[in-house]
Amino acid sequence: MEGAYFDFKYDDCGNQIIDLHEGIIFDNVQHFKEILTRYSVQEGIKVKKVKNDKQMVTAVCNNSDQCTWRLHASTYGDGVTFKIKNITGVHTCVRNLKGSGASAKWIASQFKDKYKCNPEKSVEELDSALRSKFGVHAYSSKLYRARKIAMNLAAGDHEMSYCKIPRYIAAVSDDRKYIVNLKELTCQCREWQVSGIPCKHAMGCILYMRLDPVQFVDEHLTTEAYLRTYKGKIQVVPDESIWPENPYIPPLKPPIHKKKNKTFKQGPLQVNRRKEPNEPPKVHKRSIHKTSIQGL
Ligand SMILES: [Zn+2]
Ligand SMILES: [Zn+2]
Questions:
Q1: Any idea where the SWIM-type domain is (predicted)?
Q2: How much is the pTM?
Protein backbone atom coordinates (compact mmCIF):
# COMPACT_ATOMS: atom_id res chain seq x y z
CA MET A 1 0.00 0.00 0.00
CA GLU A 2 1.38 3.43 -0.95
CA GLY A 3 1.42 5.73 2.07
CA ALA A 4 0.68 9.43 2.42
CA TYR A 5 3.41 11.94 3.13
CA PHE A 6 3.32 13.28 6.67
CA ASP A 7 1.41 16.51 7.20
CA PHE A 8 0.02 18.27 10.25
CA LYS A 9 -3.68 18.35 10.91
CA TYR A 10 -5.44 21.23 12.63
CA ASP A 11 -8.03 21.39 15.38
CA ASP A 12 -10.92 23.87 15.58
CA CYS A 13 -8.63 26.49 17.14
CA GLY A 14 -6.05 26.18 14.37
CA ASN A 15 -3.55 24.26 16.52
CA GLN A 16 -1.37 21.71 14.77
CA ILE A 17 -2.16 18.10 15.55
CA ILE A 18 -0.05 15.06 14.83
CA ASP A 19 -2.03 12.00 13.88
CA LEU A 20 0.24 8.99 13.41
CA HIS A 21 -1.02 5.96 11.58
CA GLU A 22 0.22 3.19 9.37
CA GLY A 23 1.57 4.14 5.98
CA ILE A 24 2.69 7.73 6.77
CA ILE A 25 5.96 8.60 5.03
CA PHE A 26 8.73 10.91 6.31
CA ASP A 27 11.74 12.50 4.56
CA ASN A 28 14.18 10.41 6.56
CA VAL A 29 14.77 8.92 9.97
CA GLN A 30 15.58 12.34 11.46
CA HIS A 31 12.32 13.81 10.24
CA PHE A 32 10.45 10.81 11.67
CA LYS A 33 12.14 11.18 15.08
CA GLU A 34 11.36 14.89 15.25
CA ILE A 35 7.70 14.20 14.63
CA LEU A 36 7.71 11.30 17.08
CA THR A 37 9.14 13.57 19.79
CA ARG A 38 6.53 16.18 19.14
CA TYR A 39 3.85 13.48 19.17
CA SER A 40 5.07 12.32 22.60
CA VAL A 41 4.73 15.90 23.90
CA GLN A 42 1.29 16.22 22.37
CA GLU A 43 0.11 12.98 23.99
CA GLY A 44 1.86 13.54 27.32
CA ILE A 45 3.81 10.30 27.10
CA LYS A 46 7.43 9.29 27.18
CA VAL A 47 8.45 7.18 24.22
CA LYS A 48 11.00 4.47 24.67
CA LYS A 49 12.83 3.33 21.52
CA VAL A 50 13.44 -0.38 21.90
CA LYS A 51 15.00 -0.48 18.42
CA ASN A 52 16.74 2.62 17.13
CA ASP A 53 18.98 2.88 14.09
CA LYS A 54 18.96 4.55 10.66
CA GLN A 55 16.98 1.76 9.10
CA MET A 56 14.48 0.90 11.78
CA VAL A 57 12.79 2.41 14.85
CA THR A 58 10.52 0.53 17.18
CA ALA A 59 8.93 2.63 19.93
CA VAL A 60 6.76 1.72 22.89
CA CYS A 61 5.12 3.79 25.60
CA ASN A 62 7.57 4.07 28.48
CA ASN A 63 4.69 3.42 30.83
CA SER A 64 4.23 -0.06 29.38
CA ASP A 65 2.62 -1.35 32.59
CA GLN A 66 -0.40 0.79 31.80
CA CYS A 67 -0.14 1.07 28.06
CA THR A 68 0.22 -1.32 25.12
CA TRP A 69 0.86 1.32 22.42
CA ARG A 70 3.63 0.29 20.03
CA LEU A 71 4.93 1.78 16.78
CA HIS A 72 7.26 0.30 14.19
CA ALA A 73 8.79 2.28 11.30
CA SER A 74 11.59 1.58 8.86
CA THR A 75 13.18 2.77 5.64
CA TYR A 76 11.14 2.52 2.56
CA GLY A 77 11.97 2.25 -1.14
CA ASP A 78 15.09 4.35 -1.57
CA GLY A 79 16.55 3.34 1.77
CA VAL A 80 16.28 6.92 3.15
CA THR A 81 12.58 7.67 3.20
CA PHE A 82 10.97 6.47 6.38
CA LYS A 83 7.56 4.90 6.73
CA ILE A 84 5.35 3.82 9.64
CA LYS A 85 4.75 0.12 9.07
CA ASN A 86 2.69 -0.72 12.06
CA ILE A 87 0.98 0.85 15.10
CA THR A 88 -0.82 -1.25 17.72
CA GLY A 89 -2.70 -0.32 20.88
CA VAL A 90 -3.99 3.05 22.07
CA HIS A 91 -2.72 5.09 25.00
CA THR A 92 -4.41 4.05 28.20
CA CYS A 93 -1.67 5.60 30.35
CA VAL A 94 -2.39 8.78 32.34
CA ARG A 95 -1.11 11.90 30.62
CA ASN A 96 2.10 13.35 32.01
CA LEU A 97 1.90 17.14 31.99
CA LYS A 98 5.49 17.61 33.09
CA GLY A 99 6.52 17.18 29.49
CA SER A 100 9.01 14.42 30.02
CA GLY A 101 9.15 14.03 26.23
CA ALA A 102 10.09 17.69 25.82
CA SER A 103 13.79 18.25 26.46
CA ALA A 104 15.27 21.73 26.91
CA LYS A 105 16.80 21.45 23.44
CA TRP A 106 13.49 20.50 21.94
CA ILE A 107 11.68 23.38 23.69
CA ALA A 108 14.36 25.77 22.46
CA SER A 109 13.96 24.55 18.88
CA GLN A 110 10.21 25.11 19.07
CA PHE A 111 10.51 28.67 20.40
CA LYS A 112 13.74 29.97 18.94
CA ASP A 113 11.75 32.14 16.52
CA LYS A 114 10.21 33.96 19.46
CA TYR A 115 13.67 34.92 20.66
CA LYS A 116 14.48 36.38 17.29
CA CYS A 117 11.50 38.68 17.65
CA ASN A 118 12.06 39.34 21.32
CA PRO A 119 15.47 38.36 22.73
CA GLU A 120 14.35 39.55 26.18
CA LYS A 121 11.50 37.08 26.36
CA SER A 122 11.23 35.91 29.94
CA VAL A 123 11.11 32.38 31.29
CA GLU A 124 7.54 33.05 32.46
CA GLU A 125 6.54 33.93 28.91
CA LEU A 126 8.25 30.82 27.62
CA ASP A 127 6.38 28.76 30.21
CA SER A 128 3.08 30.33 29.16
CA ALA A 129 3.76 29.76 25.45
CA LEU A 130 4.81 26.16 26.07
CA ARG A 131 1.62 25.45 27.97
CA SER A 132 -0.54 27.25 25.46
CA LYS A 133 0.92 25.57 22.38
CA PHE A 134 1.75 22.09 23.62
CA GLY A 135 -0.12 21.76 26.93
CA VAL A 136 3.17 21.01 28.69
CA HIS A 137 4.40 22.23 32.08
CA ALA A 138 8.17 22.14 32.49
CA TYR A 139 10.31 22.68 35.58
CA SER A 140 11.86 26.14 35.70
CA SER A 141 15.39 24.69 35.57
CA LYS A 142 14.54 23.14 32.20
CA LEU A 143 12.90 26.37 31.04
CA TYR A 144 16.03 28.38 31.89
CA ARG A 145 18.15 25.94 29.92
CA ALA A 146 15.70 26.07 27.02
CA ARG A 147 15.72 29.87 27.06
CA LYS A 148 19.48 29.98 26.94
CA ILE A 149 19.65 27.54 24.03
CA ALA A 150 16.88 29.41 22.19
CA MET A 151 18.70 32.74 22.60
CA ASN A 152 21.88 31.19 21.19
CA LEU A 153 19.96 29.71 18.27
CA ALA A 154 18.28 33.06 17.63
CA ALA A 155 21.54 34.94 17.75
CA GLY A 156 22.96 32.64 15.10
CA ASP A 157 20.17 33.27 12.65
CA HIS A 158 18.85 36.80 11.99
CA GLU A 159 16.92 36.02 8.89
CA MET A 160 13.61 35.36 10.58
CA SER A 161 11.19 38.22 10.20
CA TYR A 162 8.73 39.66 12.65
CA CYS A 163 5.83 38.15 10.79
CA LYS A 164 5.20 35.58 13.46
CA ILE A 165 4.62 38.10 16.24
CA PRO A 166 0.86 38.25 15.68
CA ARG A 167 0.68 34.45 15.85
CA TYR A 168 2.73 34.46 19.01
CA ILE A 169 0.46 37.04 20.61
CA ALA A 170 -2.56 34.97 19.56
CA ALA A 171 -0.93 31.87 21.06
CA VAL A 172 -0.26 33.41 24.48
CA SER A 173 -3.40 35.55 24.85
CA ASP A 174 -6.79 34.04 24.33
CA ASP A 175 -9.62 35.69 26.26
CA ARG A 176 -12.06 32.87 25.64
CA LYS A 177 -10.15 30.34 27.71
CA TYR A 178 -11.42 29.27 31.11
CA ILE A 179 -9.24 28.05 33.93
CA VAL A 180 -10.19 24.57 35.11
CA ASN A 181 -9.01 23.21 38.45
CA LEU A 182 -9.37 19.44 38.53
CA LYS A 183 -8.27 19.22 42.18
CA GLU A 184 -10.89 21.68 43.43
CA LEU A 185 -13.52 20.61 40.86
CA THR A 186 -13.98 24.14 39.55
CA CYS A 187 -14.10 25.93 36.23
CA GLN A 188 -13.94 29.67 35.72
CA CYS A 189 -17.23 29.50 33.80
CA ARG A 190 -18.79 28.31 37.14
CA GLU A 191 -21.11 25.81 35.47
CA TRP A 192 -19.33 22.90 37.16
CA GLN A 193 -19.69 24.43 40.64
CA VAL A 194 -23.43 25.01 40.08
CA SER A 195 -24.39 21.67 38.49
CA GLY A 196 -21.83 19.37 40.12
CA ILE A 197 -21.21 17.84 36.69
CA PRO A 198 -18.03 18.77 34.80
CA CYS A 199 -18.70 21.49 32.18
CA LYS A 200 -17.43 21.18 28.63
CA HIS A 201 -14.16 22.91 29.54
CA ALA A 202 -13.60 20.52 32.43
CA MET A 203 -14.54 17.54 30.30
CA GLY A 204 -12.01 18.66 27.73
CA CYS A 205 -9.30 18.63 30.40
CA ILE A 206 -10.42 15.33 31.95
CA LEU A 207 -10.49 13.53 28.61
CA TYR A 208 -7.24 15.19 27.60
CA MET A 209 -5.68 13.73 30.76
CA ARG A 210 -7.29 10.37 29.94
CA LEU A 211 -8.92 10.31 33.40
CA ASP A 212 -12.33 8.93 34.32
CA PRO A 213 -15.01 11.69 34.11
CA VAL A 214 -17.21 9.86 36.64
CA GLN A 215 -14.61 10.56 39.33
CA PHE A 216 -15.17 14.30 38.84
CA VAL A 217 -18.94 14.37 39.39
CA ASP A 218 -20.07 15.84 42.71
CA GLU A 219 -20.48 13.23 45.47
CA HIS A 220 -24.09 14.34 46.05
CA LEU A 221 -25.05 13.14 42.58
CA THR A 222 -23.74 9.60 43.01
CA THR A 223 -25.88 6.48 43.34
CA GLU A 224 -24.46 5.95 46.85
CA ALA A 225 -25.69 9.39 47.96
CA TYR A 226 -29.10 8.71 46.39
CA LEU A 227 -29.40 5.42 48.28
CA ARG A 228 -28.38 7.09 51.54
CA THR A 229 -31.05 9.74 51.04
CA TYR A 230 -33.87 7.21 50.65
CA LYS A 231 -32.72 4.42 52.96
CA GLY A 232 -35.16 5.54 55.75
CA LYS A 233 -38.79 4.30 55.82
CA ILE A 234 -41.62 6.45 54.57
CA GLN A 235 -44.86 5.22 56.29
CA VAL A 236 -47.71 4.61 53.88
CA VAL A 237 -51.28 5.44 55.06
CA PRO A 238 -53.73 2.63 54.09
CA ASP A 239 -57.26 3.12 52.80
CA GLU A 240 -59.90 4.09 55.43
CA SER A 241 -61.82 0.84 54.87
CA ILE A 242 -59.08 -1.12 56.56
CA TRP A 243 -58.45 1.22 59.50
CA PRO A 244 -58.83 -0.80 62.79
CA GLU A 245 -61.72 -0.14 65.23
CA ASN A 246 -60.75 1.10 68.71
CA PRO A 247 -63.16 -0.27 71.42
CA TYR A 248 -61.68 1.90 74.20
CA ILE A 249 -62.38 5.31 72.74
CA PRO A 250 -66.04 6.05 71.88
CA PRO A 251 -66.70 7.94 68.68
CA LEU A 252 -66.03 11.60 69.32
CA LYS A 253 -68.34 14.33 68.17
CA PRO A 254 -66.83 17.52 66.98
CA PRO A 255 -66.82 20.31 69.61
CA ILE A 256 -69.57 22.96 69.39
CA HIS A 257 -68.47 26.52 69.06
CA LYS A 258 -70.95 29.32 69.84
CA LYS A 259 -70.85 32.24 67.62
CA LYS A 260 -69.86 35.39 69.41
CA ASN A 261 -71.40 38.86 68.74
CA LYS A 262 -74.42 37.15 67.19
CA THR A 263 -76.80 40.08 68.12
CA PHE A 264 -74.46 42.78 67.11
CA LYS A 265 -76.10 45.27 64.88
CA GLN A 266 -74.44 48.05 63.21
CA GLY A 267 -75.63 51.45 64.51
CA PRO A 268 -74.48 54.88 65.72
CA LEU A 269 -71.47 54.95 67.97
CA GLN A 270 -72.13 55.00 71.76
CA VAL A 271 -71.27 58.43 73.07
CA ASN A 272 -72.89 58.40 76.64
CA ARG A 273 -71.04 57.33 79.71
CA ARG A 274 -71.46 53.72 80.79
CA LYS A 275 -73.63 53.59 83.93
CA GLU A 276 -72.66 51.90 87.19
CA PRO A 277 -74.60 48.66 88.02
CA ASN A 278 -76.70 50.21 90.85
CA GLU A 279 -77.04 53.71 89.44
CA PRO A 280 -80.71 54.85 89.09
CA PRO A 281 -81.84 55.57 85.62
CA LYS A 282 -81.53 59.14 84.52
CA VAL A 283 -84.78 61.17 84.57
CA HIS A 284 -85.19 63.45 81.61
CA LYS A 285 -86.27 67.02 82.28
CA ARG A 286 -89.01 66.76 79.72
CA SER A 287 -90.58 63.85 81.72
CA ILE A 288 -90.65 65.90 84.98
CA HIS A 289 -92.41 68.67 83.24
CA LYS A 290 -94.92 66.25 81.80
CA THR A 291 -95.53 64.62 85.25
CA SER A 292 -96.13 67.94 86.94
CA ILE A 293 -98.72 68.78 84.38
CA GLN A 294 -100.44 65.46 84.92
CA GLY A 295 -100.40 66.01 88.68
CA LEU A 296 -102.25 69.27 88.35
ZN1 LIG B 1 0.72 5.26 26.49
ZN1 LIG C 1 -16.36 25.61 32.24
A1: 178-210
A2: 0.52
